[in-house]
Amino acid sequence: EIVMTQSPATLSVSPGERATLSCRASQSVSSNLAWYQQKPGQAPRLLIYGASTRATGIPARFSGSGSGTEFTLTISSLQSEDFAVYYCQQYNNWPRTFGGGTKVEIK
Amino acid sequence: QVQLQESGPGLVKPSQTLSLTCTVSGGSISSGDYYWSWIRQPPGKGLEWIGYIYYSGSTYYNPSLKSRVTISVDTSKNQFSLKLSSVTAADTAVYYCARDYALDAFDIWGQGTMVTVSS
After folding, report:
1. What is the mean pLDDT of residues A92-96?
2. Does residue A59 have a cis bond before it (omega within 30 degrees)?
3. Do B105 and A91 touch (CB under 8 A)?
4. Buried b (16+ CB within 10 A) or exposed e, A1-34
């Protein structure tokens, strides 16, 4: 199974600042990587698929990059509604696996 | 738009079988483009993919749970279901159903249902 490792576990950022989240795969997943946002008491929401393609309705301040084993989610200017937990997930291999999450909190 | 809704008991006794159903509305589960998964999240922890089913009935399960999992589909009711046998407290989690397009990312999720395993 492919292990997905996210860093940092917690990221403290002020509103309006840039946030950079990392995700590393234990072996190449090509560009078959998704990012999700999860707020307390809610289901995850798809933000990015194919490593860099924004899902329908996702604001342009969210961007994804990377391929192979190293991936990044960037939130260019954090809004109040962006404080949440973010998960990466690979869909290149079975079983599908998720990272442990990065919590983005208000600094 | 397509919506998913989980349903089932919120409390299951240890050693018994957990049974949940996901009802698909606003679209057909028989669309050949989509695969239907179960995913769970223990309290305060991360996400674990359990398995998927295609409308034809073909399935794929997470090897870590394969011996205890059965996922089935009822196209006439536009539903798919999860059975997890011999549950323990470690199976306590929020269970989500989700859709993916052509074995891609999960683009639509149900709201989730909390299942507690306790006597």
Report:
1. 95
2. no
3. yes
4. ebebebeeeebebeeeeebebbbbbeeebebbbb
Calculate the alpha carbon distances from B88 to B18, B64, B93 in Å: 10, 14, 11
Q: What's the burial of B19, exposed, middle or buried (CB within 10 Å: 0-12/13-18/19+)? A: middle
The answer, for B106 touching chain A at a CB cutoff of 8 Å, is: yes
Mean pLDDT of chain A: 97
Eight-class DSSP state of A55: P
Report the pLDDT value the prediction gives residue B101, as an integer from 0 to 100: 85
The reported pLDDT for the residue numbered B102 is 82
Q: Which residues of A touch B110 (CB under 8 A)?
A: 43
CA distances from A8 to A11, A87, B75 (A): 6, 12, 43
pLDDT at B31: 84
Positions of chain B with pLDDT lower than 70, given as ranges: none
